[in-house]
Task: structure prediction
Amino acid sequence: MGFGKVGSEVARRAKGLGMLVIAHDPYAPADCARAIGVELVSFDDTIATADFISLHMPLTSATSKILNDQTFSKMKKGVRIVNVARGGVIDEEAFVKALDAGIVAQAALDVFTEEPPPKDSKLILHDSVTVTPHLGASTMEAQEGVAIEVAEAVVGALRGELAATAVNAPMVPAEVLTELKPFVELAEKLGRLAVQLVAGGSGVKSVKVTYASARAPDDLDTRLLRAMTTKGLIEPISSVFVNLVNADFTAKQRGLRISEERIILDGSPESPLKSIQVQIANVESKFASAISESGDITVEGRVKDGIPHLTKVGSFEVDVSLEGSIIFCRQVDQPGMIGKVGTILAEENINVSFMSVGRIAPRKQAVMAIGVDEQPNKECLKRIGEISAIEEFVFLKL
Result:
């Protein structure tokens, strides 16, 4: 009961022992519980079904004496209770009665209503209770662990990595961070692609981000994804450094409105997302083919084998890894186009990482997306643009 940092760590260890773990915490995100393999249930279901109850909640007006005569009466006979939260969350007089009646078979405590507890405390002296001093955070092991955690957090922040412990950023548990990491990278790169397709790069005021997922709305935390999309949209066209802390504020300052939409899919919810789509409204594009039927610049992508891929530009389906940089070409679909462009890039010693062609129909309009490891010079891009079948092209840096 209580599914914060300590509660989730206890859940991991219980899972490792082969236990079926349920949790009650009105503030715990469902995606965090899912990532560990824990089911969130109601308070009444918790106390009625648990064989072991481990307490990890703060002491508040809502949790004061939350375990009392009434709640003990609803528990399985023989339940074991561990309290490492706060002593006041249990009514100690009711606790002793539950122990004497055999409702609670055993208890382990390191917190008490009064600390240190009186020597004649019936709870402390009870044969079925194991007690230790409330000193866990002061042990050598705990102090060393905190020091290592702080050092790792600082190094990660300096490297620009996502942080699960930043107090002024979206608080996302480590398990969810790990699960979302490739999608976070995808969101940022889609934002970078989309804004570079805008003619002039500025004037972006309205952006819609659409997430396609088989998970329920409450099961998907999109704050990180929105922040990283914002980062991708703003950084290529400004000198502002955007991070998880200032993303929403920076967008508001620039008059950038970012709306979010979720498409609920059928199927397995094991993967948090199937795709992310970024649309920029009311702008002109330097690459006309990036305009979808809605009239917006549209790019869409998904994660494949842990790597972000671009899967759609405008109305054209493509499949290109979002690594390095990209050249988009719109051309008449005809034999030899891939070879012509590839030859020019090879002659300029530019390595092609991926190439994908999406087309309306054979011999009609097509869009070629080419992933390159190096940035082509102006002469190289000019030669590509001079190919007779190519109607427009653009180079975008990731």
Notes: The chain has a mean pLDDT of 90. The two ends are 45 Å apart (CA to CA).
